[in-house]
Amino acid sequence: MNSPDIKPPGAEPAVETHNSEGDRTRAPRRWWTLPAVSAAQLLVVLDGTIVNIALPSAQSALGMSDASRQWAITAYALTFGGLLLIGGRVSGALGHRRTFIIGLVGFAASSALGGAAVNPGMLFGARALQGVFAAALAPAGLSLLTTTFTDPRERGRAFGVFAAVGAAGSALGLVTGGLLTEYASWRWCLYINVPIALCAVLGTAVVPADRPIRGGGRLDVAGALLSAAGFGAVVYAFNEAEPLGWGSPKVSALLVGGVLLLAAFAAVEVRAQHPLLPMRVLLHRARAGSLVSITLMFVAMFGFYLFMSYYTQTVLGYSPVQAGLTLLINALAALLGSTLLTGRLHGRVPPAMLILPGLVAAAAGMLVLTRLTPQSAHVLPLYLVPALVLTGLGLGSVITSTAGLATADVAPYDIGAASAAYNASQQLGAALGTALLNTIATSAAASYLASEGHATPTGASVHGYTTALMVGFGILLAAVCLTAPLIRTRAARPPSPRP
């Protein structure tokens, strides 16, 4: 099947048009969309890492067992990843602005519930609720940006800021989690979401309203159940692979079951009259390229964040706060890459000229760290800073460009689905990267310790980290090779009429 061509990000997407007088009236107001959506993006990304730092304190306070404590992380990942496609459909049906507000209020309420938890079950339930509302919030926010900013220069600036927040959110989560846990309480790692969400809600009061997509038909119930079960099984398998190993029967069963459910979901969507995820969204060549590149980027980068945290704390002896502050170098580089570089060029140059160099820069940053040894001197200036700068610049460039490419030239009735597919790609990449690269590092360290008679635990750990980072380097090079032929763009064609 031949996919239609796509115009470069920054070109005006297919949205409902308004009269010019109304557009002039709304011009100042539409910029309020950016801080509101950025705050929501910060919430969603922040909560992927901020609780990790607080987990030991929460475990002690609530009496969690070692076997159950992972559910404070897994409950959020499961509901978020499993319900994203449904959230995209809900966003289109209710209206992106209305869904966005509901997601913010629900996320704030569930965060407050988690902060007030008196037992493990209450915390796990609150984390699951956070994931439910995040699954509506994330695609609604990206859809609002797509439909609000249509001018190429404005669109580039908006997506640059959005990408900077997304790229920096994980590092900020580690820093904020460490500071709040050390100087306040682990509960504030959840309470902090409430004022951020409420400020974003206040900002939406002046965000231009959009209209729900009419004529969408009934909810694709079969597709909704299959997508939730399939994505949930795959994300859960990735989370379980870290403690149990990839050879575990439980992990294998979850992976096989998840893949079969997703295959059944694809078969249902092809035949559904009103599909949850129209296949035209995925079969579009350039859009598929953006999804492949962001997925593989997140696979590599979330493994990178994990090893940076481990290495700085276990080998260099940094405190959790110091380790998080080190990662701020990466966050600042991502800010520069997404706003000053890619944001300014967005819509002016072909997407390939932004995405491919971004992937290469991130790969180069990981390659720097593969040269580390336990005897390496001047580690911070000679290894960590160059690696953090290069990966940050690459991540900022890739997120900005792929977010625009994934939602460019999308008809109004498909914007929610395209936004949800983009967010789902990020979630799958993050979950797979953390589990896969951690398993590789652990196995390489154990093998090195067993085979090298003179090996020390520190030497084995560093060997494991560098081995996994070399795999991350290979994943990013593979992303370049897979993405390059997909994201070549030509002249745009108007969106095909709704079937």
UniProtKB/TrEMBL annotation:
It is found in: Cell membrane. Gene3D superfamilies: Multidrug resistance protein D. GO terms for molecular function: transmembrane transporter activity. Pfam families: MFS_1. Residues 33-490 form the Major facilitator superfamily (MFS) profile domain. Signal peptide: none annotated. The keyword Transport applies. Residues 1-26 are annotated as: Disordered. The chain crosses the membrane at residues 31-51, 71-88, 100-118, 124-146, 158-179, 185-207, 219-239, 251-270, 291-311, 323-341, 353-372, 384-407, 428-450, 462-487. One of its GO terms (biological process) is response to antibiotic. GO terms for cellular component: plasma membrane. Keywords: Antibiotic resistance, Cell membrane, Membrane, Transmembrane, Transmembrane helix, Transport. PANTHER family: BLR6921 PROTEIN, MAJOR FACILITATOR SUPERFAMILY MULTIDRUG TRANSPORTER MFSC. This is Major facilitator superfamily MFS_1.
